[in-house]
């Protein structure tokens, strides 16, 4: 069955309705072309993250070394001091065994500079020792014969970071009592050849350049002791217990920051004779007079 054709009035009305819809849509299309912001474009790219700075050292590793003479003979009893050159200051102290070997576990990760000293030999230095990860850092010294000159170990702490990553003003590190660097604690851990903690070890910090009482204390059952807080500067450090090797690194110039010392000592064969320092309790420092 066929539909009858529309009457002319109805056809004209339908044409008017279609024309009105077209005219109503045209202004919106023109406005969208005139205003680019109204056209939804591709999503804006996320801002690139700021480049990250060097990661702070974290974790622990092992430091090993071998000390030989020019004739490739082992050097026993050589004093080795390794200082960290990045991050908070760390000082590792040990002595070589009869085979000329040194090995220290539990060393905080970071970049180190190691120095070795032995009687009758010139000091040896190995730089840029990276401690960290599953790898063992090995430093080999071939020491030449000669008279060792006076040395100084410099522990330079990085300046504290400001709110925007910039160095803080120098006054931020000044102590309340004056313009010098702020007082900082010194934490010491003393272990034996197998990494066991050694109790009763005397740790002494003697100020250099002025007459003052030393800061000293003995390690506890966990092999640890904390001195201070002390003022950074020039110090003479001694780690000693009768029957064990004595550790006496060169003069230490400590620039600031909490100081950590990892010391590894070895038993000696000679008879252990207690010294006066071991028989007399360490003196307590009195506060300065007002």
Brief summary:
By secondary structure, this protein is mainly beta.
Overview of this structure, please?
The chain is mainly beta and 290 residues long. The chain has a domain at 60-158 and 179-279: Immunoglobulin-like (Sandwich), CATH 2.60.40. The chain is built from two helices and 15 strands. The strands form three sheets. It has a seven-stranded mixed β-sheet with strand order 6-5-2-3-15-9-12, with no helix packed on it. The protein has a five-stranded mixed β-sheet with strand order 8-14-13-10-11, with no helix packed on it. Strands 4-1-7 form a three-stranded mixed β-sheet, with no helix packed on it.
Considering the chains and any ligands shown, give keywords for the structure.
seven-stranded mixed sheet, mainly beta, 290 residues, 2 helices, Immunoglobulin-like
Strand content: 25-35%
The CATH topology of the domain at 60-158 and 179-279 comes to Immunoglobulin-like
Strand numbers in spatial order across the main sheet: 6-5-2-3-15-9-12
Q: How far apart are the first and last residues' alpha carbons, in Å?
A: 120 Å
CATH architectural name of the domain at 60-158 and 179-279: Sandwich
- Unreliable stretches covering 5 or more consecutive residues: 6-56, 164-178
Structural class: mainly beta
Form type: globular
Helical stretch count? 2
Overall radius of gyration: 36 Å
Mean pLDDT: 74
> What is the helical fraction, as a range of percent?
10-25%
CATH superfamily of the domain at 60-158 and 179-279: Immunoglobulins
> Can you write the helix and strand succession as a string?
HEEEEEEEEEEEEEEEH
- Under CATH at level 1, the class of the domain at 60-158 and 179-279 stands as Mainly Beta
Characterize the largest beta sheet: strand count, sense, and whether it forms a barrel: 7 strands, mixed
Say how many strands there are: 15
């Amino acid at each position: 069955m066929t539909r009858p054709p529309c009457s002319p009035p109805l056809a004209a009305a339908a044409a008017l309705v279609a024309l009105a819809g077209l005219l109503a849509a045209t202004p919106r299309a023109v406005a969208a072309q005139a205003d680019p912001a109204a056209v939804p474009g591709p999503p804006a790219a996320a801002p690139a993250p700021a480049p990250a700075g060097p990661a702070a050292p974290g974790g622990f590793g092992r430091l090993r070394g071998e000390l030989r003479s020019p004739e490739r003979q082992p050097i026993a009893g050589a004093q080795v001091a390794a200082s960290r050159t990045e991050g908070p200051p760390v000082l590792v102290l040990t002595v070589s065994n009869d085979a000329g070997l040194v090995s220290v576990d539990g060393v905080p990760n970071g970049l180190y500079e190691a120095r070795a000293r032995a009687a009758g030999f010139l000091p040896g230095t190995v730089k840029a020792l990276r401690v960290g990860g599953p790898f063992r850092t090995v430093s080999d010294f071939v020491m030449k014969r000669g008279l060792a000159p006076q040395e100084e170990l410099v522990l330079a702490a990085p300046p504290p970071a400001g709110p925007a990553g910039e160095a803080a003003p120098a006054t931020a590190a000044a102590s309340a009592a004056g313009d010098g660097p702020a007082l900082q604690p010194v934490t010491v851990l003393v272990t034996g050849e197998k990494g066991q903690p050694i109790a009763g070890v005397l740790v002494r910090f003697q100020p250099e350049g002025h007459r003052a009482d030393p800061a000293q204390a003995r390690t506890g059952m966990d092999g640890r002791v904390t001195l201070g807080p002390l003022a950074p500067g020039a110090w003479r450090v001694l780690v000693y217990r009768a029957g064990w090797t004595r550790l006496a690194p060169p003069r230490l110039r400590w620039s600031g920051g909490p100081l950590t010392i990892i010391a590894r000592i070895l038993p000696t064969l000679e008879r252990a004779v207690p010294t006066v320092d071991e028989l007399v309790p360490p003196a307590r420092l009195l506060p300065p007079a007002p």
